[in-house]
UniProtKB/TrEMBL annotation:
Species of provenance: Streptomyces cylindrosporus
GO molecular-function terms, A-Z: ATP binding
PANTHER family in UniProt: ALIPHATIC SULFONATES IMPORT ATP-BINDING PROTEIN SSUB, TAURINE IMPORT ATP-BINDING PROTEIN-RELATED
Lineage: Bacteria, Bacillati, Actinomycetota, Actinomycetes, Kitasatosporales
SMART domains recorded: AAA
Keywords: ATP-binding, Cell membrane, Membrane, Nucleotide-binding, Translocase, Transport
Protein name, as recorded: ABC transporter ATP-binding protein
Length: 241
């Protein structure tokens, strides 16, 4: 059974006819998309396909889109980027609480992501994985109904990335926001998400449900069929040199 079934009757995000062009080049071409509340969605596509552009539109950060865009969307939205974007002149706890109040809530969020005891550290003292944990804590303290993540693990080493995958799933299960994760990594998409979208020529060319229970393993042979479908949609074969 899909997680958060009771929530999936109402949309968290509804997009109709979303279009975005840059200097005459159409990147998003009349996108229609519904994301039910509590659903974990991954967004794949070639470089330049418009993945981050779509995420920015959903976040309300791009005011040059046309169409109805976020016709419906939650009020509380948090964004996590590939760069943790911690302010180097503020300590970790101050970064987490930026623009909010409630020190205890910030400490609880840091403990939840495994950074208890690092509240007074400077961002420059954190590893890449720790910085991304702090960025997740900063998003959690805002209690988002929708979490938007733009390749948040792309700069991490392989082992740290796997640990962060497990952490993100745990946080999603505990807090139950809708998640839209932009990634270029097919394996990351099928291990984390319950639905994978593929952007192609400005439109959603593939909408694939990953019908496997969690936790999932990269070594799970039953994920192979999903991997092959997604790679084929990207025009990639696994035996390509």
């Amino acid at each position: 059974m899909a997680p958060h079934t009771e929530q999936l009757t109402r949309p968290a995000v509804r997009i109709r006819g979303l279009t975005r062009s840059f200097e005459g080049r159409t990147v998003l071409d009349g996108i229609d998309l519904d994301i039910p509340a509590g659903q974990f969605v991954a967004l794949l596509g070639h470089s330049g396909s418009g993945k981050s552009t779509l995420l920015r539109a959903v976040a309300g950060l791009d005011h040059n889109v046309t169409g109805s865009g976020r016709l419906t969307a939650p009020e509380r939205v948090s964004v996590v980027f590939q760069d943790s974007r911690l302010l180097p002149w503020r300590r970790v706890l101050d970064n987490v609480l930026l623009g909010t109040g409630g020190e205890e809530k910030g400490r609880a969020a840091l403990a939840e992501v495994g950074l208890k005891g690092r509240e007074r550290a400077w961002p420059g003292e954190l590893s890449g994985g720790e910085a991304q944990r702090a960025a997740l804590a900063r998003s959690l303290v805002r209690e988002p109904e929708l979490l938007l993540a733009d390749e948040p693990f792309g700069a991490l080493d392989a082992l740290t990335r796997i640990r962060m995958h497990a952490l993100l799933r745990e946080l999603w299960k505990a807090h139950q926001p809708s998640v839209l994760l932009v990634t270029h990594d097919v394996d990351e998409a099928i291990v984390l998400a319950d639905r994978v979208l593929m952007l192609d020529q400005g439109r959603i060319g593939l909408d694939l449900t990953i019908d496997r229970p969690h936790p999932r393993s990269y070594r799970d042979p039953l994920l192979g069929e999903y991997r092959e479908r997604l790679l084929a949609a990207l025009g990639v074969t696994e035996d390509a040199s």
